[in-house]
């Protein structure tokens, strides 16, 4: 089973960007942690980060033809603005989990709305980088259950 981990804008700054809010773990450390957890679960994890909306949309389109079973995405600020990323998920029909390092619901009001949450298989918010692992385990479990039911 292949899982794609996508990180959106500014997440390349994890570890140095507002560490009081986002922690000290870097994006390469997060990616290694998720890959290692994927191996333990028997899944292959590929990682992608882009500060550009179109890059994320293009990567989702490519995932459809690569046999990607599911996506974990931290869309960053695109959570609150990107109909294009939502439409890419709807168009590819790849199940996905949405993850946010901080609790977006305890932050500014404009961060309370997500264009993705309504169509996500699951959402993890506010558990720091541990949320990536929670999202991985939850998504893999859902995908395995759907595979058995089919």
Total strand segments: 5
Rg, please?
A: 14 Å
N-to-C terminal Cα separation, in Å? 15 Å
Order of helices and strands: EHHEHEHEEH
Structure classification? alpha/beta
Q: What is the averaged pLDDT score? A: 94
How much strand?
A: 15-25%
Q: What spatial form do the alpha-carbon principal axes imply?
A: globular
For the sheet with most strands, the description reads: 5 strands, parallel
The portion of residues assigned to helices is 40-55%
Work out the helix count. Answer: 5
Cross-sheet strand order for the largest sheet:
2-1-3-4-5
Poorly predicted residue ranges: none
Task: Walk me through this protein's architecture.
With 150 residues, the protein is α/β, with parallel strands linked by helices. Helices cover 41% and strands 19% of the residues. It has five helices and five strands, in the order E-H-H-E-H-E-H-E-E-H. It has a five-stranded parallel β-sheet with strand order 2-1-3-4-5, sandwiched between helices. Helix 4 links the parallel strand 3 (68-74) and strand 4 (96-100). Helix 2 (27-41) runs parallel beside helix 5. The protein is globular and about 45 Å long.
Short description:
With 150 residues, this protein is of the alpha/beta class. It contains 5 helices and 5 strands; from the N terminus they run βααβαβαββα. α4 links the parallel β3 (68-74) and β4 (96-100).
Based on the model shown, name its key terms.
5 helices; 150 residues; alpha/beta; five-stranded parallel sheet
């Amino acid at each position: 089973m292949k899982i794609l981990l996508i990180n959106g804008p500014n997440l390349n700054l994890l570890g140095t960007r507002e560490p009081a809010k986002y922690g000290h773990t870097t994006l390469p450390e997060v990616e290694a942690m998720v890959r290692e957890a994927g191996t333990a679960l028997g899944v292959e994890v590929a990682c992608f980060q882009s500060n550009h909306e179109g890059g994320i949309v293009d990567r989702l389109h490519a995932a459809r033809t690569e046999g990607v079973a599911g996506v974990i995405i931290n869309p960053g600020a695109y959570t609150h603005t990107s109909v294009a990323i939502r439409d890419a998920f709807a168009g590819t029909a790849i199940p996905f989990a949405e993850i946010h390092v901080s609790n977006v619901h305890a932050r500014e009001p404009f961060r309370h709305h997500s264009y993705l949450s309504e169509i996500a298989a699951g959402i993890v918010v506010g558990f720091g980088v541990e949320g990536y692992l929670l999202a991985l385990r939850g998504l893999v479990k859902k995908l395995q259950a759907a595979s058995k039911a089919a």
